Amino acid sequence: MASTTKVSPVIVITGTPGTGKSTHAELLVQESPVRLRHINVSEFVKERGLYENFDAEWDSYIVDEDKLIDELEPSATAGGIILDWHACEPWPERWVDLVVVLRCDHTKLWERLEERKYPNKKIVENNEAEIMEVIAQEARDSYAPEIVVELKSECTEDLESNVARIVEWIRAWKKDHPEGERP
């Protein structure tokens, strides 16, 4: 197998549903100094049939993580992607250059999920997960501390500041990897 050079980083944007992952990813694609492709993993899973079944009670797909990893491997190896999902532990460490965990006050999160018309049971579960730092802890447990950053995501100013911060990180990554990075 020929070795490829990853010329742009792989960024994971994760957080409890409603923290602004997709909005951050979409703006980052626009603002990035390098070409990045946003992969909304939930949509990717549905489009490509990478699930075992559908859980009607929770209104969500049960993801086949092995199929998902296999399908994403070529893109992750090439680099230049943003993986946007509520989980981060499935991604192999060798893929990931930066993990951004978005955090939001549970009251604001509750309002956002109500606006999305989530069932009350799902709102409660997601708020409890945010309060208990479930996804943040998952990131801390899955990746080296120097690549995990937690950012507040409660208002437009947070969004703009966070994206600007990630853009600066990308510039630093490119400076440190002028010829790209071999996997």
Summarize the structure in short.
With 183 residues, the protein is of the alpha/beta class.
List keywords for this structure.
alpha/beta, two-stranded antiparallel ribbon, 46% helix, AMP kinase activity, ribosome biogenesis, nucleus, Rossmann fold, 21% strand, 5-stranded parallel sheet, 183 residues
What class do helices, strands and sheet pairing give?
alpha/beta
Which whole number gives the mean pLDDT?
Answer: 95
General form: globular
Mind telling me the C-alpha Rg? 16 Å
Query: In CATH's first tier, which class applies?
Result: Alpha Beta
Percent of residues in helical segments? 40-55%
CATH topology: Rossmann fold
**Count of discrete domains:** 1
Give the strand order of the largest sheet, numbering strands 1, 2, ... along the chain: 2-5-1-6-7
Largest sheet: 5 strands, parallel
* Topology as a string of helices (H) and strands (E): EHEHEEHEEHHHEH
Distance between the termini: 12 Å
* Spans of at least 5 consecutive residues with low confidence: none
Q: What percent of residues are in strands?
A: 15-25%
Number of helices: 7
At the fourth level of CATH, the homologous superfamily is P-loop containing nucleotide triphosphate hydrolases
Architecture per CATH nomenclature, i.e. the level-2 architecture:
3-Layer(aba) Sandwich
* Number of β-strand runs: 7
